[in-house]
Specification:
The structure holds two protein chains of two kinds. Chain A is mostly helical. Helix content of chain A is 71%, strand content 0%. The N and C termini of chain A lie far apart (67 Å). The model of chain B has no long low-confidence stretch (mean pLDDT 90). Classes of the chains: A mainly alpha, B alpha+beta.
């Protein structure tokens, strides 16, 4: 039974913590109060049945638990001051939809506070909104539990020192928060998706948590195309999880993946979200990336990929985000539409900016091999090896080098 | 008579279950599908989450276009997740089949069907 309840707690957690954080003006008290409410529910619900509105039940229980805690602390400190008046109002515990929307956004925005490093933002969001244990987060980031504990404590101190305003944000401020939070969710997914040496299970958990948050945002802000598009993009990616590695844990290149292992149902949902986003008159980077993912998802085989359409999407993305990495992806697609020589020429133009980026060298190496320059290809792969590839990536690069050398020997 | 077994629940809870419990829930569905399959025609529909929906509201006045709202028809705690439709001897029999998919994540409604038509499959 407790497993069913845990699932309910987990789905309610972000909304509940968001509302409680505004109520108590303190993330830590909100976390403790929610934990107490869950313990109470574990005893109460099996006896009396699951309440019709679990969120309202949990919020009421958590408010009472938190207030008790505050009163107790005050008695111990012999402080005569009273519980702040606005904390004891007996209104319906669940905020109205508009307030809840801003509460959730505020909670997530607190996690991606600009005073924090990107990785700490993600760790904090996993801890606070996802409810992951410190040990789990540490495993996801390949650090010791103790070190992660210190990082989270330090991050919490930082955000306490620079509080985020509790007033209803202006539309501009709301837009800014949405942008920051969406980026954090996108990076959380990438952290899980990256082919590091940490165990697969925890990386899947990170991806699932990112999808859960993206879904929450898309649900709370149905009029915002980019949030629906972000969810679409993540669903498209995640649907390929079982095809990315073979049974021995080796990475499988995109074009070699067994497409029957892709989760079609999830891709259908991703498409549904993309189509909804496309109804809204705003083209943003997530929408373009989701459209690219959709082209790949519904190509029957790698050979049937519609590269010209994808190239047009990348050109649009580059116009919006003129970064070298987007350009690199654009060039990778141009290798298909305009040939490897053209792509090599284009790479030369950005070699200065991306010389320290291993994917630049692996792409270049592949193109060099295609154009019959195996020795130069080997040199490029070897350069990539010096730029910090993860264990599974190293295996792939070494295999490519071996293939080049075989090629070179036979010439 | 034809009956619908409608499934209501909170979206996301099934997805948050452990794999083992997801299998348990799906086991009930497979049992029901096998049992219905053996008896004749039936229909089974699983909906995507309500947030994927768009609502078409009637036009404010004649000649106006209907209003498209980017969201589900109603924001409720529990939502309509899907349904089965099949011929049953009577209400009791329909309920006995519905029991196969009863689980803590679903509330089921057994309701007679007034009319049914068409054929559909996503496979």
């Amino acid at each position: 039974m407790s497993d069913w309840l845990e699932a309910t707690f987990r789905t309610q957690r972000p909304k509940a913590l968001a509302a409680l954080t505004r109520y108590f003006r303190d993330v830590e008290i909100a976390e403790e109060a929610f934990a107490e409410a869950c313990v109470k529910a574990l005893v109460d619900w099996p006896k009396r049945g699951t309440p019709r509105d679990p969120l309202a039940w949990l919020l009421t229980a958590a408010r009472n638990a938190g207030l008790d805690r505050i009163r107790k602390a005050q008695r111990q400190q012999r402080i005569l001051s009273q519980v702040p008046e606005d904390l004891v109002v007996s209104e319906h515990p669940v905020p109205d939809p508009d307030a809840l929307r801003d509460d959730v956004l505020r909670l997530l925005f607190i996690c991606c506070h600009p005073a924090l490093e990107r990785q700490d933002q993600i760790a904090l969001a996993l801890r606070i909104s996802g409810g992951l244990t410190v040990a789990e987060i540490a495993r996801g980031f390949l650090v010791k539990r103790k070190a992660m504990e210190q990082r989270i404590t330090r991050a919490k101190k930082r955000i306490a020192a620079n509080p985020v305003a509790f007033e209803t944000p202006s539309p501009q401020e709301r837009g800014r928060r949405l942008g920051e939070v969406s980026l954090m969710i996108y990076l959380m997914f990438n952290e899980g998706w990256s082919t590091s040496d940490s165990d697969t299970q925890i990386r899947l958990t990170l991806c699932e948590e990112a999808i859960r948050l993206a879904r929450l945002l898309a649900e709370l802000f149905p009029g915002m195309g980019e949030q629906g598009a972000l969810l679409s993009l993540l669903l498209f990616q995640h649907a390929r999880r079982e095809a990315r590695m073979d049974s021995t844990g080796r990475l499988v290149a995109f074009e070699d993946q067994d497409r029957t292992l892709w989760h079609r149902g999830e891709m259908q949902e991703a498409l549904a979200w993309l189509q909804k986003a496309q109804r809204i008159d705003h083209v943003g980077p997530y929408r373009i990336q989701a459209a690219i993912a959709a082209e790949h998802a519904f190509a029957r085989t790698a050979d049937k990929t519609n590269w010209p359409v994808i190239e047009a999407h990348y050109a649009a993305l580059y116009a919006m985000q003129p970064t070298p990495v987007v350009r690199l992806n654009h060039i990778a697609v141009q290798a298909r539409t305009k040939g490897p020589e053209h792509a090599l020429g284009a790479l030369a133009e950005i070699s200065g900016e991306l010389d320290g980026y291993r994917w630049f060298h692996t792409l270049r190496a592949g193109l060099l091999q295609e154009t019959g320059e195996p020795d130069a290809a080997v040199a490029a792969y070897e350069r990539a090896l010096t730029l910090g590839p993860t264990g599974p990536e190293q295996v792939v690069i070494r295999e490519k080098i071996a293939a080049c050398q075989k090629n070179s020997g036979s010439v | 008579m034809l009956y619908a077994i409608a499934i209501y629940g909170e979206t996301g809870v099934f997805e948050a279950l452990s794999g083992e419990h997801q299998d348990e829930v799906m086991g009930g569905h497979h049992a029901l599908q096998t049992a219905l399959e053996a008896r004749g025609d039936y229909l089974s529909v699983k909906l995507m989450p309500p947030s994927t929906a768009v609502t078409v509201d009637p036009a404010g006045s004649p000649g106006q276009a209907p209003l498209i709202v980017d969201g589900p028809f109603a924001e409720t705690k529990e939502s309509f997740l899907g349904f089965y439709a099949a011929e049953f001897r009577d209400l009791d029999e329909a309920i006995s089949f519905a029991r196969m998919i009863s689980s803590p994540v679903a509330r089921l409604e057994v309701r007679p069907i007034a009319w049914a038509g068409g054929v559909i499959s996503s496979d």
